[in-house]
Design brief:
By secondary structure, the chain is mainly beta. It has a domain at 33-111 and 211-368. Helices cover 6% and strands 55% of the residues. It is built from 3 helices and 16 strands. It has helices at 12-22, 37-41, 77-81; strands at 46-53, 61-70, 84-93, 98-108, 113-129, 141-158, 165-180, 195-207, 218-228, 238-252, 255-266, 292-305, 308-322, 327-344, 349-358, 361-368. Strand 3 (84-93) and strand 4 (98-108) form a beta hairpin. The longest helix has 11 residues, at 12-22.
Amino acid sequence: MVAVGGADEPSPGDSSRARRSDKVSFFDPEDGQLDASEFLEQAHGMLPIPIVITEPAIGYGGGIAGMFLRPRHDAGDEGWSRPDISGVGAFGTQNGTWGAFAGDASRWLDGRLRTLFGGATGRVNLDFYGLGPDASSLDNKVRYSLEFTGVVAQANWQLAPRSPWAVGLRYVYATVDPILRDEPAFPRLVDHVRVEVSAPSPILEYDSRDNLFTPTRGLYAESSWVASRKSFGASDDFDRFTQVLMGWHALSPNVVVGARGIYSWSSSGTPFFLRPFIQLRGVPSMRYQGDEAASVEVEARWRFQGRWSAVAFGGGGTARSDRDHFAATQNTGSGGVGLRYTLARKFGMDVGVDVARSPGTTAVYLVVGNAWFRP
C-alpha cells in the first residue's frame, strides 16, 4: 500500500507557511521601526557598511565593508550583546590612499576564550611632523607613502567564568615600505628602506561593558606591551606600551555619559610611523606625535525620541618629544556633535554620523556602534 499525503510529507499549505517563515523582516515587531536584527541573525546576514572617509590626514574618500554578526544563542542575552563578528572591506581616498582588510573576532568554550585574526594590505599617504633635528620641525610636515602588508593574531583567556578580567597574547607581523613623496626636508630621513615589525604583545584586559556596540554602563581597560625584536624577524628592536581606559554610566534611562583615556609610550628605536600620537575625533591622525602621548575624550548621549539619540563630545590631548637636541610638548583639543539611530535593537547597535572640529580642521565620521569600538 502506498500512502499519499502522509505525516512525513508536507502539504502545499505547509510549504507555503515554511516559505513565509523564512522571510526576513526589517521591522521590529516591538515598535514597528526599521531594524536589522533579524537579518543579521541569519547565517547569510551581512550588514553592508558604507565607508565615508573625511579623515583630514588622508583626504576625502570612501569604500564598502561587510559585517557578519553571529549571536551565540547558547549564551542567552550575552550572546547577543557579545556576538561573534567577521568583516571584510576595501577603501580609497583622493590622495591615493587605499586598503583592503578582513578579520574575525570569535568566542569559544562558553565565552572564556576569545580569538581575533585579521589582515590588511594597501598604501597610506600621510604627513608626519617632528622628524627634524630641532623643535621647528614639529610644524614642518614630511610627506610619506607607506606601502604595507600585515597580519594580527590574538587569544584572550577569561580568568574565571563571568569574570571581567582576562589575559592574552597578541602577535603582529607587518612589512612597511616608507617612500618619500617630496625632496627630503631633513637629512637622514628613511626612504625606500623596508621596515619589518614582528612583535608579540602580552595583554591584560578588564571588560564589564553591558554591550560591545553601544554600551550604556561598564568599564573597558587594556594594558599592552609591544616588544618587536630582531630575534623574531623584525628589522629593529623597539618597545611600545599602551594603556586604554573607557567607561560609561547611565545618568537616567535616556542619558548616558562616557569617557575614554589613552596613554602610549614608545622607545627610541620605534619606527616614526608607529610613534604615539594624539587620538581625538577631529584631529588629523599623526599630526601630533611624540615619544609619549595622552588623550582624553568625553561624550554624552541623549535618547530624545524612540530610537534616535543626539551626541555631544569633546576632549584634549598632549604629545611629548624628547630628542638629543630638543624637548617639546604639544597640546590640542577638539569637540563636536553627532546623531544616532538604533539599527539593531537585539544587538544593541546604534549607527550614525559625527561632525568634529579642532583648530583648523573639520571632519565627518560614520559611526557603527560607538566611536571607541573594541570587539
